[in-house]
Structure formats: C-alpha cells, structure tokens
Amino acid sequence: NAGVTQTPKFRILKIGQSMTLQCTQDMNHNYMYWYRQDPGMGLKLIYYSVGAGITDKGEVPNGYNVSRSTTEDFPLRLELAAPSQTSVYFCASSLPWNYNSPLHFGNGTRLTVT
Amino acid sequence: EDQVTQSPEALRLQEGESSSLNCSYTVSGLRGLFWYRQDPGKGPEFLFTLYSAGEEKEKERLKATLTKKESFLHITAPKPEDSATYLCAVQVTGANNLFFGTGTRLTVIP
User: Fold this and answer.
1) Which among A41, A97, A108 has the least Cβ separation from residue B91?
2) A91, B10, B62, B97: which could join A23 in a potential S-S bond, CB 3.0 to 4.6 Å?
3) Angstrom distance (rounded) from CA A56 to CA A46
C-alpha cells in the first residue's frame, strides 16, 4: 500500500541545470497536484491535473512544466533552475472533488539550487 | 481575495495541558475545510474534513469544529507524540485545489 511515492528525496542543482521530480500513485486517483512548501509560507499549488492528458496551472507555475500521460504518474520538470526554486516539493493525489476526497501527499523532494 | 490565517504560529504545551488551534478564513464560497498533520521531513497527513458550520469531528485527542468564519482544532490532554505542525486548508467552491494556511507548530513537553 505505497500511496504517493516521490523520487528523489533530496537533490542539489546548480543554477541553470534541469531536472525532473518524479511522482507516482497507486490509488487510481484521477486528480494529481504539485505543491511547493517554503519556510513560513503555506503550501502553494504549482500545477494540477484532473486526468491523463489534462493539466492546468496553479498559483506559482513559472519555471515549471508538467505532463500527465498515465493515471499513475505526474512528473514535474524544472528547466533552468534558479535559487528561487529552492524548496520542498510535494506531490498529492485525490479522487474528484464530488467524492469529498482529501488530498493524499507523498513525503516530498527537498531541492536546493546553488 | 481568498485567505486562510492560522494562529498561533507556534505553541508549547505541557503534557496533559489542553488547548486550541485556530484557523480563520475569508473565501468567496467554502466547499470544505481540511485539517492536516505534518511531521518533520514528511508530507501532510489528513486528519479531518468539515463542510458546514456547526459540524464537529473527533479522532482520539483531537476535535475539529467549524463556524462560518473559523475552525478550531482542540487538543485534549496532549501527549509528546502529538507534537507536529498542524495545517488548515480550504477548498473554495468551483476550485480544483486546496488553499493552505501557514500552520501551527505544536510542541508537547513531557
């Protein structure tokens, strides 16, 4: 019963490098989300998806890209990493909101850009 | 503008000393209010969802309540293992995500 799995757990990037944060869920949830969490700030939504092939921007999408080719996977791509992208990234999934379903979170990826 | 404010930012309690955490919200239309617990180095863990004013939910030493402007998370006779950050989040009607507060960091001292 893995739930939401994120890899890697930690990563250090140099400015200008790119990387993909991986997220997979085994609960057959349609909805998936990417949040970032910075000290003293609430979780901020980056992108979300309501199903395979459908993605939409959240509050803070600049500098990120996503794709959703399968129900299970929702990778987050960082192009040209910047120090402002130093954060902890959380992936989450849920059933559609009319099911009154809470979000289920992974344990995060801690990213440092130097 | 939709807003969620949690207070206090941090709270230290002696074991057994009951208290409450507050989550006040200003949103255009509330579909649901969620409480999560987050331990260091972990993702948020779901505790409760409340949908209408007057609703209450309980789990072990925790009880969540909801009014039209705020929610309280009451902690009765807390234990050290209750130490964590407690996050409040709202879902606005018609939105496909949760809007989070900044959390209350609770420390329970033996």
Assistant:
1) A97
2) A91
3) 9
In chain B, pLDDT over 90 holds for what percent of residues?
86
Count other Cβ atoms within 10 Å, centred on residue B75.
22
Using one digit for the tens of pLDDT, what is the confidence trace for B55-79? 999 999 999 999 999 999 999 999 9
CA distance B74 to B98: 22
B40 touches chain A (CB under 8 A): no
Q: How distant, in Å, are the alpha carbons of B7, B19, B30 from that of B57?
A: 20, 16, 17
Instruction: Assess A41–B contact: CB distance below 8 Å, yes or no.
Output: yes
Q: How far is CA A42 from CA A26, A88, A110, B29, in A?
A: 26, 12, 16, 20
The SS3 assignment for B42 reads coil
